[in-house]
Amino acid sequence: MEMHRDVFDLTGRRALVTGASRGIGQAIAVEYARRGAHVLVAARTASGLAETVEMATGASGSVTPLQADLRSETSITSAVADAVATLGGLDILVNNAADDHDSSIENTDLSTWQRVLELNLQSCFLLCQAASPHLAASEHGKVVNVASVLGAVAVPNDIAYVSAKHGLVGLTRALALEWGRRGIQVNALAPGFVDTSMMAAVLADERAATWIKRSTPMGRWADAREMTGPAVFLASEASDFMTGQVLTVDGGWTAQ
Ligand SMILES: NC(=O)c1ccc[n+]([C@@H]2O[C@H](COP(=O)([O-])OP(=O)(O)OC[C@H]3O[C@@H](n4cnc5c(N)ncnc54)[C@H](OP(=O)(O)O)[C@@H]3O)[C@@H](O)[C@H]2O)c1
Fold it and tell me: Where are the domains of the chain?
């Protein structure tokens, strides 16, 4: 008789989670470690990374910090090399690091556009490229690109971010086709509005914050921890026949 197997178990899986010094990336990294994964967490802020390590105390897996600015190609290459050296290989890549710059096309100069695209899209391309041989060597290769509902629909005055997130959804689909027969699944997680520091300015603006609550069918913001279940699903055996898809977790926002 087959023993009961937990399809969400991540015991022994080796993961690199970017942007895991706070917010959604931090919550995902800690949950992966609780489920037995060994996770390298990359971001710029040492204190945030230390907090992630602390939050994973007692987990069956582990969290190792890596201070890196993922806007630079050299840091990306060495982040992947560090992950492989520390963890002994790589099974899961979570491209989560991003930042936002709310502005219209007239108010977005070329260097701002480039900075947003560099982190929110180009770094994901470079991380996938650097991780490619290691994910191919894994029995359980998975990429989770943290996109956004703004990768499916647009809002005005957020031109670079919306463009980058639509690009990330395109990268997810294109790579899923390229890597389908190599046994690597590539999917995106598309959060709705989540109460994190990225949204601090919106949360502080009563009109904008109220609009978000009102326009979300569930009538509230998400907590970062609410992204962890879907992120575990996309990194685990539970999603083995799923690739090139966007899993939207938005309290119903895009159902309207
Ligand atoms: N919050 C939302 O409502 C929402 C909605 C949809 C999608 N998302 C997406 O979810 C993901 C996480 O967002 P969040 O809300 O958790 O944002 P957050 O709280 O601002 O966290 C962003 C993370 O990215 C890291 N990061 C920023 N610039 C970096 C760089 N140059 N190099 C390395 N790491 C860098 C930050 O760490 P350091 O500053 O320490 O480097 C931090 O750990 C993003 O992809 C975002 O677009 C968020």
Answer: 14-192+223-249
Give the span between the Cα atoms of 207 and 196, in whole angstroms.
18
Closest CA to 244 of 191, 190, 186: 186
CATH topology of domain 14-192+223-249: Rossmann fold (3.40.50)
Cα gap 106→227, rounded to integer Å: 33
Q: Which atom of ligand 1 is nearest to the CA of 75?
A: 32
Mean pLDDT computed over every residue of the chain: 97
DSSP state of 141: -
Check residue 135 and give its pLDDT: 98
CB atoms closer than 10 angstroms to residue 46: 11
32 given a catalytic annotation: no
Structure tokens at 32: 């992966």
Rounded to the nearest whole angstrom, what is the distance from the C-alpha of residue 4 to the centroid of ligand 1? Answer: 37
Q: State which ligand 1 atom lies nearest to the alpha carbon of 22.
A: 43
Residue 26 Cα to ligand 1 middle (Å): 9
- What letter would DSSP give residue 122? I
User: Are 145 and 131 spatial neighbours (Cβ–Cβ below 8 Å)?
Assistant: no
- The 10s digit of each residue's pLDDT in 68-110 is 999 999 999 999 999 999 999 999 999 999 999 899 999 999 9
Structure tokens at 191: 């959060």
Distance from C-alpha of 68 to C-alpha of 72, rounded to nearest angstrom:
9
